[in-house]
Every structure is written in C-alpha cells, then in structure tokens.
Protein 1
Amino acid sequence: MKNILLAVVGLSPQVITETLFALYQQSRRIDAIHIITTRQGKEMINANLLSPRDGKYYRYLNEYDIDPESIDFGFDNVHIIKDRNGMEIDDIDLLSHTGRPALWKTAGSCLPRSRVSGV
C-alpha cells in the first residue's frame, strides 16, 4: 500500500516540510504527496517549495539524504479547488460560495481508488 500525504494548504506551504519532518521522525515512509490549495497557494508552493534551485522541499530531501525519486511529488501533484464554473479560486474565503463539494471533488480527483487511512 502506498502512503500518500494529502494536505490542504493555504499561503504557508512550509506546513508540508514540517509534516514531512514529523513523519520522518516517526520513521513513517511517504510515497506520494498531493496538495489541495487555491490558485494563490499554488503560486506560493511552486515558488517556495518546488523551486528546483532553492525550494524548501528539495532542501529537506537533501538535508535528510532522501532520494527525490522516492516520493512522487511535483507540480502535477498540486490541485486547485475550482468553483462551480470550473474556474480556479484565488482565495479560500471563496469556498463558502463554492461549498464543500468542491473541496471533496478536488480531493477525490487526486487520490487513487484505494483504502484511505489516517496517519
């Protein structure tokens, strides 16, 4: 079974590296990371976490000698919540207009059809 970290992230993508560190300390293996966020959140994640030069995710991997190929995580693993018209939302406050179904639809689209369990 694959261990997938699914996170809903706003404008503070460091929660991903902090979570990875906590799981690493517990010797929990992560095979893939999927993030649900807004359009603005995706921009922050791409700039601060996934930047190949100085992204915090790559610094974390380097610091703990983790092979980047061992975790499926990249730009395609960042999923944007969309409104009823299929437009990416800019702010999580707009989710109140879109409703919870948009969040669950986004979550369902990024996870394989398998048993999901909590960490």
Note: The CA atoms of residues 4 and 76 lie 15 Å apart.
Protein 2
Amino acid sequence: MTRRKIEDFINNILVTQFEIDAGIIKSSASLRSDLKLVDSDISDIAMDLEDEYNIGIPEVEEDRWRTVKNIVDYIETKIK
C-alpha cells in the first residue's frame, strides 16, 4: 500500500462523510481548527481505517492525531 493510496482513502472519507472541500485538505491541515472535526468525527475516521486496513487503533492514538499527516503516518507504520 502506497502512502498516496492511504492519503486518497483519508481524503475520500473527509470529502464524502464530512463534506469537507477537497481544496482545503492538505497533509498539514489541522483536524480540529482547519477541518472543523470533533473527537467523535476522528473516532469515525479511525473506525473506517480499522475496517479498510484490518487493524486496531487504540483511542490513545486517535488523541495524538493533530493533522492529516499524523493519520497517514500512523496508518503507514501499522500496515508495513
């Protein structure tokens, strides 16, 4: 799985489930301040990632995610 495919999957979640404009989704985008996500939204993203990549994501890891890049980095390490 390439990093780009992980990014595309996450971006698709952000656009389709949370109706975020694709133009503002950057790897450095803050989940909370730039994308206006709340904790429950981030948990929903984690559940989608768990299903897609057949992994478990502890809640403590979700709490560490601040940017889109943080999520991509985490998933990349879990599926290698």
Note: Residues 3-78 form a domain with the Non-ribosomal Peptide Synthetase Peptidyl Carrier Protein; Chain A fold (CATH 1.10.1200.10).
Protein 3
Amino acid sequence: MESYLLRNKDLTPGGGPGGGIVTSPEKSKQYGWGDLLLSERRRLGFTQDELARALGVKFSTYLSWEKNRRKPPGHVKENIKVQLAGMSPRRGEDF
C-alpha cells in the first residue's frame, strides 16, 4: 500500500470519514495541514501569496502552515475548509 493524500473536501488531518491522513508501512511520513494546503494550492493553480490573500491571512502565516511549522487555529481550519471547497482551479484544469 503506497502512502498518498486522500483527495476530498474533508481537509481535517486524521479527521472524519475518508479525510485526512493515510500512511503506509513503507513510509513513515504523516501528512499534515501543510501537505493538504500545498496539494490544494497546486490543484487550484495559485501561488503561495495568492492563496494567502484568498484566505485572508498574511503570507508569513500561510507559509508557516504550508511548511508544517504551525497549524491554523481550530476556527481558522473551519474557515479554510469552507473557502477551499468553494474554489475552482484558476486555469480551468485539475493539476
């Protein structure tokens, strides 16, 4: 079984049905919020700065989340999930 990030709109790491983290015995990497944000940002075709602005946060804050240095607070996680669920890829294609 390969490690992979489940692609769905439930962006809660380790959370709800079908959401979050998938790990394999071969690889010990756990996927966190940063990995989810990076995956969604690439799917949408946004730069880090563009997604930070779209989410209404400072670039440095967004970068700390994407690099898994910090996690967004609980209330912000909910806002991110709602906003990302409503966004479409910028170039009209899934990356």
Note: Residues 1-28 have pLDDT under 50 and may be disordered.
Protein 4
Amino acid sequence: MARARDKTDWMSLPDEILAESAVLFHDTRVQDIDPEAHAPFVIARLLDGGTLRRVRALVRHYGRERIRSFLREGGIERISRRTAPLWMAFLQLVPGECTPKSSLRRSSPFWTV
C-alpha cells in the first residue's frame, strides 16, 4: 500500500526555488509537487524561467548529470528555443545530442508498408 503524501514532502525543494515558486509554478499548487516524481516538470520550469540563483539551486539539488539526461531524453523540447542553446552550452552538450530521434507513425500519410 502506498504511503499517504505528507504535507511537508514539497519542502525538499531548495529554499532558493521555493522563494520563486509563485512565479515558477503559477499554475499549480507547490505543495502538490513531488520533487522526484515531478523532476522533469521542475527542471523544465527552472531552466525556462528561473534566475541564475535558482538554476544553481536546481543543479545542486538534481546534479548536472540528471539535468543533462533530462535534456538528452526529450526535455529539450519542454524548454523554449531561446533558452535551449544556453543550457546546452552550460551543460556542455553537443547540438545533435539533444535532437529527438524522429520516427514515422502508422497514422502518418507518408507511412508505407
């Protein structure tokens, strides 16, 4: 049986991030954010709209490698085109490393069997 969420679970986000939560998470209740389960959401919001101080807290909290993995695994499409090159350079990612692999879908008009 899953344990009930404690109301203080959200407090595991760093204070620097919580200080800006009204702006970063304006469309959700911050106490409903689980930093682990919602890590892609938190990382995307901070990379897109956080200050440098908040991004430093993000890197301390999740680590550079986890953020790099987020971007490599499709997260690059969750942040704006304006900020993506900045974070790719900061995290030393090469351009092709974060490009999603395209695949044809059966519903595509160009799909041939």
Note: Residues 9-98 form one domain.
